[in-house]
Design goal:
This protein is mainly α. 77% of the residues lie in helices and 0% in strands.
Length: 230
């Protein structure tokens, strides 16, 4: 694997792990949360630097349904992440207290809470849109490019459905829709819950939206094929 590709994948894995740690706010102190947020900012910038070729190519080629879908998710994610980071800086007490953003704390809290969950959802969708690439890489490494037997495919699909189903349950049980649509000012956490269970619930919710992104990409590819066949 080329050095740049390896660095790109490593940065993506670190950013995903950092995102989960940020969402598991109940498991960290405020100071740790702020430094994790600063790390997310650095990884976010690095991600765009390493994927500069995709950004420069936006003005070239045909805009097919999969390309429109991917660009829309990236644009929404960019807006959400920038708003989340700006509001986080406005509330910072440890990592960046010397930066002053003229934003009332109450407003910054609302923006930060809502955008944190939107970013979580959109990053999961973004991963799902590229899941076929990850699947191909895994098959190349583990099975030397050979397809899985039907039983293996069936078991993986069942696992994906079960995990996504649990993710849907957690999505509503954790009150995520109320955070997305600014229906509450504060996040409510169960501090008596086992840490591993809290992380497992977040992974399940992420899996739900990864599956949604994967299926949306399949639909977009199907629509593009039909359009070419006309």
């Amino acid at each position: 694997m080329a050095r740049k590709a390896l660095l790109r994948h490593a940065a993506d894995v670190l950013m995903t792990a950092d995102l989960l740690a940020l969402m598991a706010y109940m498991l960290t102190e405020q100071v740790v949360h702020e430094w994790l947020g600063l790390a997310a900012l650095v990884l976010f910038i690095l991600h765009h630097v390493l994927n500069g070729g995709w950004i420069r190519g936006l003005g070239r080629g045909r805009w097919t349904a999969p390309r429109v879908l991917q660009a829309a998710v990236v644009l929404l994610l960019l807006v959400s992440m920038l708003a989340q980071m700006a509001s986080g800086i406005a509330m910072s007490r440890y990592a960046l207290p010397f930066l002053s953003i003229p934003l009332p704390i109450s407003t910054a809290r609302l923006i930060h809470l809502s955008c944190a969950y939107w970013s979580f959802l959109l990053i999961s969708l973004h991963i799902g849109l590229h899941w076929s690439v990850f699947w191909g890489m895994g098959r190349k490494k583990l099975r030397r490019g050979q397809p899985l037997p039907p039983l293996g495919v069936g078991l993986l699909r069942l696992l994906a459905v079960l995990l996504a189903g649990y993710g849907l349950l957690c999505f509503f049980r954790l009150g995520i829709p109320s955070y997305l649509f600014v229906q509450t000012e504060f996040a409510f956490f169960d501090y008596n819950k086992a840490p591993l269970l809290s992380v497992a619930e977040l992974i399940a919710v992420m899996s739900l939206w990864i599956l949604a992104g994967y299926l949306l990409q399949k639909l977009a590819l199907s629509a593009a094929k039909k359009k070419r066949g006309r």
